[in-house]
Design brief:
heterodimer; A: mainly alpha; 0% strand; B: alpha/beta; Rossmann fold; 6-stranded mixed beta sheet; 9 strands; 23% helix; disordered N terminus
Chain lengths: 223, 241
């Protein structure tokens, strides 16, 4: 049983880092969004430090959405999805493995890039740590929720925008708890742990709901 | 109800028996008795009835060629059997099949799309499908073919480490065909299997199909060409007037 999981995981990871894969696109987009912000907001260092965590989170959310539309569509376009549906493997697990590989290819680079990009936003070291930690806990939820949208829009040409419209409402709670945990360090009396635990809970819920809902959508996609 | 199955005939029979939507059983028993049975199938695509009241029975070691004009539902029939399209009515089953396998999980689907990733090498593509697809071997089957051996048999071993993006259309087709050799499944659903293949590859394909039938497999092929196979039955789908 572990053989096919590993084979699928390696394939997805290979595809995401090779030519035409989405691994670099997300992190480059993240870089572009974050570097533009200081120019738009102006050289007010206190203001940048205040909005920094929120900007990083919004950048990460948009960068995650950017690559998600190809999660299942690439496989549908070349007929791989048909064969995957016939392969006799549990579809929920298949979705989970694809999401894990997708997160490792596109989500983790965002988490790693966040501390570097924090410098642009004048974040103090403690805030940098908090943002990175919340992104690490929260981006899997974004990928898994996005997978539902990707599965629903799999049969639509240029479904990327529809995907974003579908997914953003459901990723708002992740954004709220992520930003409030990340910003708690700079706003002294605000607690860090409470929103952070909510964020972890959202990721765990998405871990269960995401694969089940995506698998259900994929089963009805081939018609 | 646009289309109806109006004729089922066995190519080897001199007389062409006309049967409308009737269960046609082929009498000759085979070493490994497995049977694909469809009973009064109907299929809707995009709100339109593509075919209805279609029954067929295909036993181990038999091939069935599905014929008919474009758009009559040949591909839809194969996709219904593969489990990729839900039938609007009717039953589909594999008698004496493997337990806990759906009908689709008995099948290899060789359709128009090659399911290849251009960024991965030929061998990586094939190895992935070898490891990913759950085999459904017949009892007493000769084991599966190793990926390299399958590539060699199809004459594309020299491209093994080349990215699939550099393959020609015929080579992509052959690589896609190699999937059928590396994982054993009793039913082959072939949709226009000879498209883009040269005559030598066509012969290789015919050889593979013969071997598959001899091992007790079943083949359903939607094609306009004549297949050089022993004892082929043919199913003609035609537009209802």
């Amino acid at each position: 049983m572990s053989g096919w999981v590993w084979a699928l995981f390696l394939r997805e990871l290979r595809l995401s880092v090779r030519v035409g894969g989405g691994a670099l696109i997300g992190v480059l987009f993240f870089l572009a969004v974050i570097t533009v912000i200081p120019f738009g907001v102006g050289p007010d260092l206190n203001l940048l430090a205040l909005i920094g965590p929120a900007v990083l989170w919004i950048g990460a959310l948009l960068a995650t959405l950017l690559g998600l539309d190809r999660l299942f569509q690439a496989d549908r376009d070349d007929g791989s999805l048909d064969l995957m549906l016939m392969a006799g493997r549990p579809l929920e697990l298949l979705v989970l493995v694809k999401c894990a590989a997708h997160w490792l290819g596109t989500g983790l680079p965002l988490v790693i890039a966040a501390p570097v990009l924090s410098i642009f936003l004048n974040l103090e070291p403690l805030a940098v740590g908090a943002v990175t930690l919340t992104l690490l806990a929260g981006t899997p939820a974004l990928t898994l929720i996005g997978a539902i949208g990707a599965a629903l829009t799999v049969s639509l040409r240029r479904g990327g925008l529809l995907l974003a419209v579908l997914v953003i409402p459901f990723s708002i709670p992740v954004l709220i708890f992520g930003v409030s945990a990340a910003g708690a360090v700079t706003r002294e009396p605000a607690p860090f742990l409470t929103p952070f635990l909510f964020l972890c809970a959202l990721s765990l819920i998405a871990l269960v709901v995401g694969p089940v809902a995506s698998a259900l959508a994929l089963r009805f996609s081939s018609d | 109800m646009d289309c109806l199955l109006i004729e089922v005939r066995r190519a080897c029979d001199a007389e062409k028996a006309r049967v409308a939507g009737r269960l046609v059983r082929f009498p000759k028993p085979f070493r490994i008795a497995m049977r694909l049975v469809a009973d009064t199938l109907a299929c809707d695509r995009g709100g339109r009835r593509v075919f209805s009241d279609l029954s067929l029975s295909l036993a181990s070691g038999r091939a069935l060629v599905v014929r008919g004009p474009n758009g009559v539902g040949k591909s839809s029939l194969l996709r219904v059997i593969a489990g990729l399209v839900q039938p609007a009515a009717g039953q589909l089953a594999v008698e004496d099949g493997l337990p806990e396998h759906s009908v689709g999980e008995h099948c290899h689907y060789f359709g128009h799309q090659d399911a290849l990733k251009p960024a991965m090498s030929v061998l990586e593509n094939l190895t992935f499908w070898t490891r990913f697809v759950q085999p459904a071997p017949l009892p007493g089957d000769r084991g599966p073919v190793a990926p390299e051996a399958a590539l060699e048999h199809l004459g594309i071993l020299h491209t093994a480490h080349l990215p699939a993006a550099y393959l020609s259309a015929g080579q992509r087709r052959r690589l896609s065909l190699a999937r059928l050799m590396v994982t054993l499944r009793p039913i082959w659903l072939l949709d226009e299997p000879t498209s883009a293949l040269d005559s030598a590859s066509e012969e290789t394909l015919t050889g593979l199909m013969r071997d598959h039938l001899a091992a007790g497999g079943m083949i359903l092929a939607a094609t306009h060409q004549d297949l050089d196979l022993p004892d082929v039955a043919s199913l003609r789908l035609e537009r209802a007037a």
